[in-house]
Amino acid sequence: MRAFIASVLLLLAVPALADSDLPPAYWSDRQLPDPKQEAQAKALMEQLRCLVCQGQSIADSDAELAGDMRHMVRSRIAAGERPAAVRRWLVERYGNWVSYDPPLEPATWPLWLAPLALLGLGAWLARGRLRRRSA
Amino acid sequence: MTRRWRFVPLALLVAFVGFVAWRLANPADTVIRSQLEGRPVPAFALPPALPGRAGLSSSDLATGKPRLVNIFASWCVPCIAEAPVLGGLKDRGVAIDGIAIRDRREDVAAFLARNGDPYDRIGSDMQSSVQMALGSSGVPESFVVDGRGIIRYQHVGPIMPEDAPTIIAELEKAR
After folding, report:
1. Does this complex have an ipTM over 0.90?
2. Phi-psi label, residue A118: left if phi above 0, alpha if psi -120 to 50, beta otherwise
3. Which of B103, B104, B137 has its CB closest to that of A94?
4. Which domain holds residue A80?
5. Among B98, B11, B94, B101, CA closest to A68
6. For chain A, what is the mean pLDDT?
7. Measured between CB atoms, does B78 come within 8 Å of chain A?
8. Which of A35, A114, B4, B48 has the greatest count of CB atoms below 10 A from its CB?
9. Burial bucket for residue A77 (CB in 10 Å: 0-12, 13-18, 19+)
10. Number of domain units in chain A
């Protein structure tokens, strides 16, 4: 019975807030009036990592910091900044990690070369198979 | 396929599952550090978070003496745990400035009344813009800035009592 009461109380408990309850920044959930700019902003936001819920893009995330990042991206693009410049600004501060489009550099060579290597391995295996079958 | 090669796929699978199990048990470090250590504080100017108090701008951080910039918020629970440690640092003569993230005046005032106010200046960052400019990804975080306005050290998360010596040492180094 005590366990039951405890679980009912847990259901009623208010989760500790890890967010302010201030309204979101202006451009965080609002599209830019210029569809071309909005498309640029959208494409960029889908390639930027949310710093709070790491694994989501800022386009997908409900975290407040992600909202503020969307506001920042849209404001800068509306002001005429190139998406690549906005990405560079963030990478300068948070490292390549913040971008879902990793550059080709020694640390990421395996990432880019592994698919080619696996494809090569697959072709080699398939070749052996096919040759044996036709023989 | 020869006998010798027969178990290679199984070995690969076992190795893969082993790696995944190991990573589940030892998750990768998910702390995102600012890349700005060793570089100047980006230019910014924040309005005061409290009426009658000074706001914070980047020029306030190049005063010839090292300062601690603390990013906090009234809605941030670990910031409450950190507050007494900041108070202790202030008592030891550390100059501390605050940046309040997404916060209302009355909430900041209530937070400081309850947890102590170690800040010389408090800027209000309503859209996390200065937080992003500093490469900070959450609250609380703290930066040691030297007398020329160069970021020398970043502390991610609350400064707990055991972290205070490190902060003091970094402030000494930045002198």
Report:
1. no
2. alpha
3. B137
4. 25-102
5. B101
6. 88
7. no
8. B48
9. buried
10. 2
Element (H, E) at A74: helix A64-78
Taking the model in full, what pTM does it have? 0.83
Instruction: Let me know if residue A72 belongs to a domain.
Output: yes
Q: What local confidence, expressed as pLDDT, does residue A19 receive?
A: 79
| Chain A interface mutation, best of B8, B19, B33, B35, highest count of A Cβ atoms under 10 Å | B35
Tokens 């965080």: give the residue. A28
Question: Which residues in chain B are closer than 8 Å to A69, comparing Cβ atoms?
Answer: 128, 132
- Say whether both A131 and A96 belong to one domain: no
Whether residue A46 lies inside any domain: the answer is: yes
Do A62 and A92 reside in the same domain of the chain? yes
B61 to chain A, any CB pair closer than 8 A? The answer is no
Q: In angstroms, how far is CA A33 from the centroid of its own chain?
A: 24
Chains A, B: CB contacts under 8 A, how many? 65
Q: Could you tell me if B105 lies within 8 Å of chain A, comparing CB atoms? A: no
Task: Single out the residue of B72, B132, B45, B98 nearest to residue A67, CA to CA.
Answer: B132
**Looking at residue A55, what is its pLDDT?**
86
| Multiple choice CATH, B45-173, 1.10.260.40, 3.40.30.10, 3.30.70.20, 3.20.20.140 | 3.40.30.10
Residues B48 and B122: beta-carbon distance below 8 Å: yes
Subunit contact A54:B30, Cβ cutoff 8 A: yes
